[in-house]
Amino acid sequence: MNKRDLPAVAEFDGEKKIKPFGPRIKEWARRKPQYDAWLNILAGSVRASKTWGTFPKILQLCDYNVAGLKVITGVSKSTIYQNVLNDLFELLGEDNYSYNRQSGELWLLGTKWLVIGAKDEGSEKYIRGSTIGVAVCDEISLMPLSFWNMLLSRMSPKGARLYATTNPDSPYHWIKTEVLDNPNYRRGLCRDLNAVTVTLDDNPNLPPDYKERVKRTYTGVFYRRFILGEWVLAEGAIYRDVLTDDIFYSDATRPITLLHRNGHQKHWVSVDVGTVNAFVAVDIFDDGRTLWIERELYWESRREGRQKTDAQYADDLVAFVGGIENQRYWPGIIVDPAAAHFRTELIHRGFFVVEGKNEVLEGIRKVSSLLGLKKIRIHERNKNLIAELRTYSWNDKRAKLGFEEPVKDHDHGPDAVRYYVHTRIGDWRIAAG
Description:
By secondary structure, this protein is an alpha/beta fold. Helix content is 32%, strand content 19%.
């Protein structure tokens, strides 16, 4: 396929095709680049077809005559491949692209692009000194402000264009305060900024029952951001809207066969390690649909008046899972990623150990979704865990500075649950409802 032979978006056919867009994205996607603003941003809910809306634009940009590099940026090369390139390649067919995943060099329909990761403050060095004519930015709110500022400073050619997608975040996030609400990016004749907000209802290809299922997976601040498309502050108790009484179970209401060898699919213990702070382990049975948090191991050094060593905590964990005599039935252990020495201690004891994933906001979102769907159940005897989940709160002072994080106090049980959920539960399972 030659880039000059590309059919109109609505007519693009193949095993995968660009389906009809809602009117907002259709206008954004099909406008020729020469008529676009300098900065073009699609913001809004999940599943609103923001990324798919960039595909027709990328195809047009292959034939857009402008000086400088053409780049695609995102948190990392791997996330760009997963979120953008994988579908784009399937759409185009293997004869119409080539990509070096190590160098980031990409050829689309005979046009050279460069794929660049921008995960931290040091990423701006990858574009320093470059001249950039076209930039396509996936999930711009996850990139640092320093990279954004460097990127804009590189986009000096006449006719340079930037296209970005994002889910809403905090109203104090830099993309909101420095760009979307910045009066210096004047709309209208100067064509500096074209920002479009879309929601689920702007995607005509989603069946009503799927939309309802997606809406059920989000609650509280995540519902307002990822479903309604609002830029709102995360404040108050994190699990306030989802930690309802029907989450808790007792011996009498537990599924009869859950603890039997064949009554669950997976059995793990997830651990948040503390020395001065609390040490917490939660015993989790996964039946393939619901996570059942059966027991807790909780030691708070300040309350108990003495600290324990890694070896002593490992002794406690051996006893917690049934003793050395039952080693063949020990569950897998997911451990706080900051606790390298304790992981080593457990490995020496014969445990199968996995380092927990620690992206805090993403983990909280998953836990909140599963609680909202009643896919996490907690035995009523886990008094410390329940108390901490009920008081687990956003740090309001930090939020107003643009940093979203929980208050670091009595958060050890919630952290242990989050490590398991973020490490072992994929978004596909949450979306299944």
